[in-house]
Amino acid sequence: MTQRNARSTIREVAREAGVSVTTVSHALSGKGIVAEATRARVIDTARRLRYRPNAVASGLRSNRLGILALVLRPLDTLESFLPEGVDYFLRFAGAASLSALEHGYGLMLLSDPTLPDAPSVSLAADGFIITEPVENDPVIDLLQSEGIPLLTVGKDLGRADYAAWIEPSTAKITKQVLDHLEENGARRVAIAIGTDRNSWNITTEASYRDWCSARGQEPIIVTQMETSGTLGGRAIGEELLSMTDRPDAVYCLTGRHAAGLMARLAEAGVASPADILIVAGSDSEQTRNSVPPISAIDLEPEVLARAAVAALVEQLGGVPKNDGGAGTDGRFIVRGSSSR
């Protein structure tokens, strides 16, 4: 049986030819103004790398397919597309699917379409929703080069002029959590954030630093990869236990980190909420089932999903969304881990 060759991506062709992704797209499609020498070089490079533009997407781009695509970017870096205990993505995808139907569209769920093994129909959609893009996200590069409408849930902070986005009010949520911890007696608050360079992590850290500066507190920031789950939370606990002047409250952005942190601290005799207050930035099965249950933010993915679909459909109807905005303020669920 002949093994199927992996397809090169448009970004690989651009890099090899020394041009932009947009130039590759224009050179191969015949659109736009490209110098003949450059066009020839791009075509030769594409042939050598066996790059094939998506025939389905290219051939149908001018017609309405009745399909929206959804790329849940954080899942591309996690160990599974069904991370244990995390229901945010299931709730988002379910609400987005039903909302798309209400607008007369179907919804196609995709992983990163820039990968070499992406399905050949990956770009065959009228428009894309991308959740939590990273800085200068290559998925946005690809879609923009192909002229495909898109909307992101979370701003790409590497694109100052990019406006088609909505997101939770991250700065407002962060201040609400930190104020709650302070009101419950915390005087030395730490945050534990992920390593993905997305708006959620970056904006939370910036808001936390501002909050600390206003109170004269030295920031205490611990990081762990999102994929590390509860084991990463235990590693956060180890780091805090090693500190001479240990914090008395922690805001963990992921629920799995928060649960692992609480478990490790309990093993060391540091109880919550008596000795340390803990809040998670995203509710999960682990936060709800910890003892005591962990206070958490319900980011209301259903609200975000409906807002994202509506904004993208509006864009497809010829009325582009020209300003970013907040989809929800979230819902702060106060539980035993942060109340005294």
Provide the fold topology.
Blueprint: H1 10-17, H2 21-29, H3 36-48, H4 55-60, E1 67-72, H5 88-102, E2 106-110, E3 127-131, H6 138-145, E4 150-153, E5 165-167, H7 170-183, E6 189-193, H8 199-215, E7 221-223, H9 229-241, E8 249-252, H10 255-267, E9 277-280, H11 285-289, E10 295-298, H12 301-316, E11 325-326, E12 331-333
Parallel strand pairs: 1-2, 1-3, 3-4, 4-5, 5-11, 6-7, 6-8, 8-9, 9-10
Antiparallel strand pairs: 10-12
Helix pairs in contact: 1-2, 1-3, 2-3, 2-6, 5-12, 7-8, 9-10
Anisotropy-based shape: elongated
Amount of helix: 40-55%
Structural class: alpha/beta
The chain-level mean pLDDT equals 87
Number of helices: 12
- What is the CATH class of the largest domain? Alpha Beta
**Strand residue percentage:** 5-15%
The tally of strands reads 12
Integer tally of domains: 3
**Radius of gyration (Å):** 23 Å
Low-confidence stretches: 1-5, 322-326
What separation lies between the terminal Cα atoms?
Answer: 66 Å
Level-2 CATH architecture of the largest domain: 3-Layer(aba) Sandwich
User: What would you give as the CATH superfamily of the largest domain?
Assistant: Response regulator
The major beta sheet can be summarized as: 6 strands, parallel
Which fold name is given in CATH as the topology of the largest domain?
A: Rossmann fold
Spell out the helices and strands N to C: HHHHEHEEHEEHEHEHEHEHEHEE
- How are the strands of the biggest sheet laid out side by side? 2-1-3-4-5-11
